[in-house]
Design a protein that fits this description.
Layout lengths: L4 H10 L7 E3 L7 E6 L5 E7 L9 H9 L2 H25 L9 H10 L2
Antiparallel strand pairs: 1-2, 2-3
């Protein structure tokens, strides 16, 4: 399955309301539950990860699923877009070119955020 950045962004936007932020049952022998924990500490499981049939622990995959939540995916895509724009600006500046429709302030801000 090949997914473009725009497709991944659309998928993350559609799933944004699902705040996967917690993993239960972190043992190698048991399935893990991925879900969200609210401010009161109540856990709401959404996904069961059971890798026993593949002779693999479930914990690492469950932790990855919780960490790669829609909010983080959108943040990574936004950072990539800022850095791509900054790189284009630097290349154009290096070669003495200007880019039509290019937002110089966005590039300068992105460059400042990478320090």
């Amino acid at each position: 399955m090949t997914t473009s950045t725009e497709q991944l962004k659309a998928l993350a936007e559609a799933a944004k309301r699902w705040n996967l932020n917690f993993v239960m049952n972190m043992t190698d022998e048991e399935p893990c539950e991925v879900g969200w924990k609210d401010e009161d500490g109540c856990f709401y499981p959404l996904i069961t990860v059971d890798c026993e049939n593949y002779f693999q622990p479930s914990g690492p995959l469950a932790t990855y699923i919780a960490a790669a939540n829609p909010e983080r995916i959108l943040a990574l895509i936004a950072e990539n877009e800022r850095l791509t724009q900054a790189t284009q600006y630097l290349r154009a500046t290096l070669h003495g070119f200007t880019i039509d429709g290019y937002d110089r302030e966005v590039a300068i801000k992105a460059l400042g955020e990478t320090k």
